[in-house]
Amino acid sequence: MMVTWTDWIFEDIVKTIREPLLVLDSDLKVILANESFVNTFKVTPEETLSNLIYDLGNKQWDIPKLRELLETILPQKTSFDNYE
Known about the structure:
Elements: H1 5-16, E1 22-24, E2 30-33, H2 35-40, H3 45-48, H4 56-59, H5 64-73
Antiparallel strand pairs: 1-2
């Protein structure tokens, strides 16, 4: 996969966001985790990137309600805020 100028800009923007943030691909694998996420959840990029969100942190993200949101909302190309 070729990295473009817009990919770099996108990554730089994500890095500046102060809240923990993950960017997922269509298979729900992590393609980007900002520094705030890494620091907040005390993980490394190596153990986060390319993994399914549900497998992160000994499967602590494998939450039925989160799974429902990701698997029903994302395919509809909508978004949600403030999931805790």
